[in-house]
Each structure stands twice: as C-alpha cells, then as structure tokens.
Design goal:
The protein is of the alpha+beta class and 261 residues long. It has 2 domains: 140 residues, PSTPO5379-like (3-Layer(aba) Sandwich), CATH 3.40.1640.10; 96 residues, PSTPO5379-like fold. 21% of the residues lie in helices and 25% in strands.
C-alpha cells in the first residue's frame, strides 16, 4: 500500500478492504481522528466529558443524530465503512472487532471524532525528530495510567497515554512542537519515570505495540484518544462503537489548520 494516497483515496482503500491495519504515517499533512459512537441518550454526557477533558478528548467533529456522514471532515466520509477496524461494546465490554459497522448502524447514533496524536507526529518528523513507532512500522505504544479524568455524568476513568522515546534535547523540542497542536492532544502530560503515572512495565503496553527505547532516551507521554474507551468500560453503555486502537479515521482537514503559531 502506497503512503502517497490522498485522504479520500485512503478511505476508499479502507472501504474496499485493501487497507486493514493501523493508520500511523499515512496521508501526511492531514488530521486523523479517534472515534466514539453512542446512542443519543448518552451523547450529551459524553460531550461534557470531552469538554471537561480536552487533552485526552479534543473534539474535532460531531455528527447529527442518526447521520453516518460527516461532510465537514471529509468528502463522502461514511463512518460506517471508513475505519480499518472498529470495536463493538456491549455493557462496557468489547464483544467484537469489525471491519465495517453498516449492519449495526441505528438512527439514534451520534458520532464523535477526537483529535489524534498521529497528526503532530508529522510535525515532529518534519523537524528532524525520529518518531520511533513510525520508523519501526508499528502501532504507537499506549498505556493505562493513574491520572484521573474529570467525571461527567456516567463517564469517568483514568487517562490513557501514548509514548514516544527521545534523547533529552529532542524531548524538549518535541514538547515545544506538540504544544502548538492543542486540538490533537497538545503538550505531553509526563516524561521520565513511567511508574509515577502508574505504568509499571514500559515494554508491555496495554494497547498498540512496544518500541525500542535506546540507552539515554527518555519516554515522553502524551494524552491519548483511547481514554474514552476506558471511560466506556466504566460507564457501561448498553451499546457503543469505537475505533480499534491505532486504526484511525482519516479526514480531509490539513494539520496546519489545527496548529497554533
């Protein structure tokens, strides 16, 4: 699969089943999004959860009730078919992973699209920094933490973070660069000793894949859009759909539109 596809072409390759893996590194220059799909009677509380927790849950798009199309995010974008892989939740538990959710779509569903750290990875790379998960061709490592989110109605839980290792000078530069992108998680929430945020084994991520951490490198942790999945586990809505970690929604929005200079 070529990395030179436009966002529309990339979504078409997903819809046709040609691309089924993670989306890191694809369509440089465009915003990728985490996805949460909930029934209408849960949507207002989840919206408040996002507003209360903008670092792990930066909202970049929201659908009308029952409408699977999100024209403000992409031409012909259909949330039922345009992610490589989805997770189906029932009563807070993941019951199935699917490449298509057309058969599960309902007219009371609301889609939320949240900013993704893959968007600022491009800015890091453009500055000459090595983003290890991209270099190694794997999904970014993600970890459950002890950092509490602010509760909203039935939604609560601790933050999930993604990690990228850097030498100290590069870590400082990565912090400076990602700070310009608050709509895609912004500055890191922690760097250094992972045990301080409840991560006991950095080589065993809860989601994604482990990456090489070279001698002298510091792990740098950013808030992650898998956080809502932890909140869903605790809130236990009877029905919910999310992206599978690392399998994001590719939008037509340029990353430059989200940067603050």
């Amino acid at each position: 699969m070529s990395f030179g596809l436009s966002p529309l072409e990339f979504r078409e390759s997903i819809r046709s089943g040609k691309h089924t893996g993670n989306t890191s590194g694809y369509c440089p220059g465009y915003v990728q999004g985490n996805v949460v799909i909930l029934p209408r009677d849960w949507a207002s509380e989840f919206l408040q959860f996002c507003q209360f927790n903008p670092k792990p849950c930066p909202l970049v798009g929201m659908s009308d009730v029952g409408n699977p199309l999100l024209p403000t995010l992409g031409a012909g974008l259909d949330i039922r078919t345009d992610l490589p892989r989805y997770r189906l939740f029932n009563d807070g538990l993941v019951t199935e992973e699917l490449p298509d959710i057309t058969d599960y779509w309902r007219d009371d569903l609301v889609t939320f699209v949240l900013g993704c750290s893959f968007s600022f990875e491009e800015a890091l790379t453009a500055d000459g920094l090595e983003v290890r998960n991209v270099i190694e061709g794997v999904n970014v490592p993600m970890y459950r933490t002890n950092i509490p989110c602010r509760s909203a109605g039935r939604f609560s839980g601790n933050m999930v973070v993604s990690m990228r290792p850097f030498l100290a000078a590069d870590a400082i530069r990565a912090i400076q660069i990602s700070t310009r992108f608050p709509s895609v998680h912004g500055a890191p929430v922690h760097f250094g000793d992972p045990s301080l945020i409840g991560v006991e084994d950095i080589n065993s991520p809860n989601f994604g894949d482990s990456v090489t951490i070279e001698e002298g490198e510091i792990p740098v942790f950013w808030a992650c859009g898998v956080t809502p999945q932890v909140a869903l586990e605790q809130a236990k809505p009877p029905f919910c759909i999310t992206h599978s970690p690392g399998c994001m929604l590719m939008t037509d929005i340029p990353n430059s539109q989200l940067a603050i200079f």
